[in-house]
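Lab meeting notes turned into a lecture example. A postdoc, R.K., suggested we walk through two folding results consecutively so the class can see how the record format repeats. The first protein's sequence and structure tokens come next.
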Amino acid sequence: MKRDLPSLNALRAFEAAGRLGSFKSAAAELHVTQGAVSQQVRLLEAWLGASLFERRNRRVVLTAAAEAYLAEIGPLFEQLAQATARYGLSKAVPRTLSVNAPATFALRWLVPRLAGFRAAHVDIDVNVETSNEPLEALKEGYDVIIRGGPDTFYGYSMKPFLSEERLPVCSPALLQRVPLRTPADLHRHTMLHTSSLPRLWPDWLTKANVPGLRPNAVVTFDHFYLTLQGAIDGIGVAMGPTALVADDLAAGRLVMPFEGPRLPSRVYCTYIPEAKPADEVVTLFCAWLQGQGHLAQRDASA
């Protein structure tokens, strides 16, 4: 029996654009140009004899009929992919997972652990982009977004996976040259600041009962990872987040001259777009993050 069906490429372009709400994001997922997605959608609209999207400035919105159509054909693509994989017809095309994370977190925590994830899941390519922009300012299309929290954002599910505290850290060589026995001894040291986090040192000094302390010198960086690198290189003392300096502490590149006081900090959380259908790769990656976070907390309390 002959089936009267539109082009599969046109259906794929429509499904991706409708699911992601963006021709640009659909193009990135399908590894084609944005113009190719637009052309395939126009072909499908011509075949159906109906408009599928309303163009609103830089966004595209499904028409009511297209939304109902997508609800029916969307699950069919997932079933097709699962059936193909189940019967060995897939030639192991790697799935690309797109992750957006703050730069310092990515550099000092995520990237050093990512080789372990890749070794266990060779069929998953991970694309990591760094940004400190708030969630609502990000472009569309990320599978997993990592930010501080816990916060609630419309259209996203959130789950914490790693907590931390902040306290002074420095290189062991610096500590040997100029010992730090009490917080008051910081007056002989250089304090390393980050311009975007101006309250870290004042808040800690207040909690340490030396609110008016003046250091020997101050060096300010515009990125937090530069501040931490300055501490590793012996320039001065930085306020270190325990999760992000754990590897440096374990390797002896940094030391904590004081056990406290400790400043509380926001928790690292995953934010997953609810507009995307359930995805086992995203679930797998988030479970891996949870496991790595648990290991980090266990090591910190050991």
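The second example is placed directly after the first for contrast:
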Amino acid sequence: MAKQDKTSRQAVIDEIRNSQKAAERRRGGMIVGVAVVLGLLIIGAAAWKPITDSISAREFKEKELSTIGAKADVCQDVTTKPAEGMQDHVAQGTEIPYADAPPAFGTHYDSWEPMERKFYGPDDRPELGYLVHNQEHGYTLLWYNEKVADDAAQMKELRGTAARFDGDDMRNKFKVVPWTAEDGDPFPEGQNIALTHWSAGGTGESGTAKQVGAWQYCSEFSGEALEDFMTEYPYMDSPEPLGG
């Protein structure tokens, strides 16, 4: 009888152990399954943005620049003032106070941002000293403030417009960059976009006597205004158009 009781107890123990192992296998399978699903979601999310960006870029490349965004009348008249700072280089990382919001000229770093990159977000924009150097080399910069950064429709237009300037052709000296409260004063009241250019005072001009900074502020993005601005201030109209 004792032997039978011992056998029965062992059977119960074995059954409990087997049940525990089965439960552990199920939990393990569930964990693996969840991990696989999460992994696929992460991969899918990472792949989705480049795909949608590519589709968006093609969409905007097929449009006339002047048809993207608002009409030019959302922008103020272009203003200029005498420029200074040509070849006034300081070491990278030096703090440079700029009086204008945003700057179109001035002291700048001894290096600049590569032409390949056209669009920058609030978290990855280079320091102003690099961008001012870009302007010395003929770049037109389109600055957007925090209100535009929170506007998905306008950000799509800005990304699509930046994609139109892909490539290292000198005519593609253009960048879209953010302007934040940490950078300096806000744009004029009601204005959320700024176009800037460091002009030599006319294509073919040399020296510093005629150099000006040019600004145009807009309440929202206008491809028509951008096209007019870059026609008025081409890359060749800059202190050092062949650099960068």
